[in-house]
Amino acid sequence: MEQSVDIEALNQQIFVDSAFIEKLNEETSKVIVGQGHMIERLMLGLLARGHVLLEGLPGLAKTLAIKTLSTAVDAEFSRIQFTPDLLPADIIGTMIYNPTKNEFTVRKGPIFANFILADEINRAPAKVQSALLEAMQERQVTIGNDTFKLEEPFLVLATQNPIDQEGTYTLPEAQVDRFMLKVLIDYPTKEDEREIIRRNLIGDSFKKIEAVVSPQQILKAREVVRKVYMDEKIEQYILDIVFATRQPQDYGLAELAPLINYGGSPRASINLAIASKAYAFLKRRGYVIPEDVRNICHDVMRHRIGLTYEAEAENITQEDIINKILNVVEVP
Asked: Which superfamily does CATH assign the domain made up of 230-328 to?
């Protein structure tokens, strides 16, 4: 009985603390037509303190969505266009010699912002990707002998293009794992695209976005997200999903064993749990339900399952494997 009272109080607190979500949605919809799934996932990453990898064809408003969100949150935005000749110093900064003072001074790079857009991350070589991914993981940057903490909220939103693979450097699997979510962006619906055309023709596609949320509100919301109630049965459900990618035969999915090269790491379990809590917060609820886990499962897991040559030969994707697991693992 006491627990239900606690959950009720938590529900009320979260209903109040999550009020800014509606304001954020209103502001972003001034510029972004459709693409609700992408906007929701960006907010999820922001609330769960996780970085997001967006994969989609050019012209699907990936950059625009990220810039719009950073303006609405009143945060500092930095865009880095990844190219083959980019150097780590171009991202994190470097030491500059000052001849008048006869000393080296630190010049900080574009990584020192709240929202970092790493545009076409797979266009730059591994050493540049590593510089960014280190900052993502450690949330600090070392230049010369000095170490600088990156200011929170700090969120990296990387994009990559699934076509035109010439001159690209595939992100190593171990480094892709640093992203909490990998989100696939699809074309807008016919109705949405009609609205996009109309807005562009009348020059109404770049409305003035107002800052409706402060970075402090986001940091407070992150603390509240951690308080969202998760039952032991939900925890077990998350573990079952992740372990089914490692030992599918234990869950009556022996046919998947030859298709999976490696399954989700403990990072998958952690991110699935945190993202489920953040999703419940987005839905203005104080507790996680199985549907929250199922809803975000593909985005958390798709880049954490390695396929064998056999799976690729049979055109079986990570999506197919996740669908089979979700269909078989018992829902609490």
From this structure: Magnesium chelatase subunit I, C-Terminal domain (1.10.8.80)
